[in-house]
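#onboarding

Welcome to the new folks! Below is a worked example of what a typical request in this channel looks like: someone posts a single protein sequence, and someone else replies with the predicted structure as tokens. Don't worry about understanding the tokens yet, we'll cover that in week two.

Example request:
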Amino acid sequence: MGTTEFGYYPGCALHGSSNDYEQSVRACLDKLDVRLTELEDWICCGATAAHSINQKLATALPARNLAIAEKAGCGSLLAPCPMCSMELLKAKQAIASDPAVRDEMSEIVELPVVGSTDVVNLIQVFLAIGLDAIKSKVTDSLDRFKPACYYGCLLTRPPKTLRFDDCEHPSSMENFLTELGAEPVDWNCKTECCGAGMTLCDPDTVTDLAHKIIGNAQKHGANVIVTACPMCQMNLDMRQADVEKKFDETFDMPILYLSDLVGLALGISEEELGIDRHYVKLQI
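Example response:
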């Protein structure tokens, strides 16, 4: 397999509170001969507040990043955070479908932008690399893992914007991880909301939602929850101690990124992937 190239938009989370996700993504994709080229001078995509305050700003912020990607000749742009990828895709669709929006956004961001760059998430990158190419580099089976694949509320929604999987009953992570030896469980909360940014202003609500999600995963036999969203990972991992205290239950449920599990199959250590930095330690 030759080197595959993607543009890379880390967004605020992967350079800040969830830099362990960036560590994991880079370690995993490097092992798969994927080169990421980070956009120069990228800005915040506007998540989560811009769309509720100023719709024009909510389009202009991601449009600026799309313009930078187009200027750099970037055909495909990886945005590992589902909120970022959603905002970029919404802006791309608005710009590509309406000449008036395209002209206005080009003027606002001071760069021409036409919406030509494809925006992809981590699952789509793995699918683009190809299962056979990934399996050719696997050194360790994932047969000890029974993951509850957790998509959260944004990875497959809104369905008119994100069309790579079924918005209510996605299966791309399960199908992929099964081929690597894991035994994904069938459970009820794969697209439930974790509370997202409410973790700061209303932690009790997030604790209740996390209890529902983690408890359902455990009830259905999972020994790990796997996600491709930094906010979901943080809420379920960081808040798990609060969940156990509030509900007087013990879960010890590791919350891994999809790149963590794929990385382990590729023989990458927990330290290289950043798994050792998680609150709930992996003891499987």
